[in-house]
Design goal:
The protein has 10 helices and 8 strands. It has helices spanning 82-88, 102-117, 122-142, 152-166, 175-181, 186-197, 201-219, 224-230, 236-247, 251-261; strands at 4-13, 18-21, 28-33, 38-41, 44-47, 53-56, 62-65, 70-77. The strands form 2 sheets. The chain has a 4-stranded antiparallel β-sheet.
Length: 262
């Protein structure tokens, strides 16, 4: 049986809508509000900004209302979700403001549509989607407050540059050169990159090169030396050492293991 009891995305309610559950529900209640709300958290009465989220614990009192028309995502998870909640460290009965809640709406929408379709393995898919949503929420709220803010324009610019970068792995990239291509200082570029992609620019590049090497070793007879050259390494020794560092084996051992597994 799925841990997801019910879910609705971008669900509207009239102005004056009010939920008052003094003893809560026997389910976890996940809420994401597009509109300002008045909401009780413990003994505090809060007026929220758009984008507020809260996950009420099992049997926690719930009270929220708005004098304006309400638009929100909501989902109920059964008590069987408790081990998942504990393992992920999901904050309960806490007002949260993730920087970007698009993942919340997208996840609830996928779950809602899957439940309505009632297709084979639907419960497994909705459970996986719920777990992914919770992981993303935990990540979003655990981002340090000192993280560099990224504007919509910077997000679009860096996302576009990253896509171009991944198509030019053979070039001799440095952080300074990356930063110059998008007209930023190296320190500012690195801070924005880490805030947006949760990885440093150079580590992102290395991981992309290692993934490309794995794919090449899987699908071709390209020599290790030629592969190192194609991926922008100055010499095969550096490539092999880095490949081993990130995979635990040398490129040749990786290729042999693939050959023996076919």
């Amino acid at each position: 049986m799925s841990i997801v009891v019910s879910a609705r995305h971008r669900w509207p309610e009239r102005a004056g809508f009010c939920i008052h559950r003094p003893v809560g529900l026997p389910t976890y209640t996940l809420l994401h509000f597009f509109t300002p709300m008045q909401l009780r958290v413990g003994d505090r009465l809060c007026t929220t900004r758009p984008g507020a989220c809260i996950i009420y614990d099992l049997n926690s009192p719930q009270w929220f209302t708005s004098s304006e028309p309400v638009l929100h995502d909501w989902m109920h998870l059964s008590a069987e979700a408790q081990p998942l909640m504990a393992r992920l460290g999901v904050p309960l009965d806490t007002l949260l403001y993730p920087a970007d809640c698009a993942f919340f709406t997208a996840g609830v929408r996928e779950i809602e549509l899957e439940q309505l379709a009632a297709r084979p393995l639907g419960g497994e898919l909705t459970d996986a989607a719920a777990a992914m949503l919770l992981i993303r929420l935990v990540r979003a709220v655990q981002t340090p407050e000192s993280a560099e803010p990224v504007s919509a324009a910077q997000r679009a610019m860096l996302t576009g540059f990253r896509a171009a970068l991944l198509g030019r792995l053979d070039e001799p990239w440095t952080v300074a050169r990356m930063a110059a291509e998008v007209h930023l200082s190296p320190s500012r570029f690195s801070a924005l990159w880490r805030a947006l992609f949760s990885v440093s620019p150079m580590n992102d590049l290395i991981l992309a090169r290692i993934d490309a090497a794995k794919n090449a070793l899987t699908g071709s007879a390209c020599s290790v030396a030629r592969l190192a050259e194609q991926l922008g390494y100055a010499n095969v020794t550096h490539f092999s050492r880095q490949f081993r560092q990130y995979t635990g084996v040398s490129p040749r051992a990786f290729a042999r293991a693939l050959l023996h597994s076919t």
